[in-house]
Amino acid sequence: MTSIQTNGRFFNHLQHKNNYDEASRNCMVNTVSHLLHTRTDINKPGMLLGKIQSGKTRTFIGVMGLAYDHGFDAVILLTKGTNALVKQTYARLTQEFEERIEGDDLRVYDIMAMPENLRKYELSQKLAFIVKKETKNLDRIRETFFETYPELAKRKVLFIDDEADYASVAYEHKKDENVTHLRVLATKINALREQLSSSAFLQVTATPYSLYLQPDDMTIHENKVYQPVRPAFTELVPVHNRYVGGETYFDQAEDPDHFASHLYHAVSEKELDAMKKMDRRKIKMDQLLTQKTIPNIRQAVMNFIVGSAIRRFQQRQLGQKEQKYAMIIHTERGKLAHAWQDELIRNMEDRLIEDANKESELLQTLTRDAYDDLIASVQTFSSVPKPSFSEVYQDVLFSLKEEYLISSVVNSEKDVHELLDGRGELQLRAPMNIFIGGQLLDRGVTIRNMIGFFYGRNPRSFQQDTVLQHSRMYGARPLEDMAVTRFYTTPKIYAVMKQIHEFDSELRRAFERGGHEQGVVFIQKEENNRILPCSPNKILLSSLTMIQPHKRMLPVGFQTGYKTYIQPTVKKVDDWVASLKTRAVDEKEGAYLVPATSAREILRAIHSTLEMEEGRDFHLDEYESVLDYLTTENEEGAYVWLVVRKKRQIKRLNGAGKFENSPDTPGSGQGELSIARRVAEDHPAMILLRQEGKKEHGWRGTPFWWPVLVAQQNTTPTVFAKKTVK
């Protein structure tokens, strides 16, 4: 077996240039070792699994360097089908391998812009071909290898499929012909690979869900047959210490003392609808700074301006270079919607500039609101200066008067090409840049210093790969920038993104525990209420629940029913809880083990007393199905640990003005959640909190029960699908 050396001229150059840490270097070494000793192809590729914007490109470039040092002569780098990504990739490769290119050791080519009549001297060097995943590019690379320069077909070639989210090799099923035709792109890539003397295949992705989690059998869906693709090996790309991802936006956001608790701002569905298409009855251009129809987009723009001003003030105070900042508005794919949003934002800019020149009281109020919002998270950092409101206001006035704010639409190849800088990144033309777009902002194109993300893509069925790639707020972010970063979307979309984050995290943990063959269990509820295994490629991500050891499930974002209506039901639950204690089969730390049927009855009664807010869900069938699944895992019988607490006086909104989501105080080991997690080893627990529901706390002046379901420690990571594709 070949030993991987890290002192070759290609990798040594990259190591010196990038100073790879040990974890990154080990990932690169392991990947190349697998590529040399494991058969890989498009049907069974090697896999580099990273996180969104977490350094995957940096890692596969390191793999390229090691591969060149260990016998590979050429790399065919397959990119997503946009000219912008081709340009960005070309700029990145020529920058990373600059010394080797200048030393005539390597040539990098965009396959559609290759010079004619390459000489033997040039062909003798190591080669890198950037090939867009579309028909003309693939035809050109085939022509280059087998017609123009046939000697290349004898070389050892590494395919790297960047942003590989085609989860399976799909076949169209022709009913009238009883034959199947391999998808065109996959066919061309496969044909190219099969004609080469020696090749290896590596996929690089952060969205491998269907790929890893498909069933092993062939399944038919929507006139297509899916042939499962399983990776030959998987290497996890290490997550660097500057990475900000779902852990920040969803896990740390639960802590009211953490800066992340300030990141998310809820947008109403009505406001999102108002931004989709032009309707001058709903939005008056001369009232953009006061109109109630669009409070969040106005706040998003003001927060962006004020956040940029705060950061630039801090940089001046610390003697650092003042940075330029970016904000993204990504709600629709259609160009008509982009044109409408562009008109809206440009008119808002004009109104703000007018008010800055007048130094109006309205602008001062808008600036004050944004300052108060942002300074709450800035104050959680001790390492940065805290500007006063007057200092920030003067900066805002100056920035607006000098027209520091620019908005640009990015929705065509021409637009992106014109907006890219020399590094292939979106060019920040001014200190404050707002980008409006859709598909081309989805993935790949790098946007530096982004501190505002207004997101509203709301498809009927969310696809995990797509939604994750839309998460442009992920990536390497200075924490000082995060203090003034804000993320705007609807509660429904936020909830789906949180579920996807949980899915993503559990999948990565599954690999870390021992590889994808252990995987994750998928289940669904049939019409006859049976819980059955489920095919992953049938799951709708908008109706997914991730179950894992000690995971909590609880309703959040609700109001109680009125006292007259719910009081009898609350009294019934009071009586049930009192009687269950006397009939418990076991007792531990003040928790009572009761039949699961009784827990279901209580849950059903509580459900009828709560009224969910817009975009918030408390699906009874979901909770009952999860409870059924958790209680049937144990051979001893279907039981639930009940942890009861009364006379609670929690407020409806927390200190950050958001719906309370932690009524089950963890405490220092004696809180109800801590107890529930200790007793929930083989059986799940249900925490029942009887709240006083006082009006001064935001409720309707009537007691109610708040349930929290806690999965047991000894449960298999599971995806529960409320709905599946028929």
From TrEMBL:
* Source superkingdom: Bacteria
Protein name, please? Putative endonuclease Z1 domain-containing protein
Domain Putative endonuclease Z1, residue spans? 297-513
Q: What Pfam families does the annotation carry? A: Z1 (PF10593)
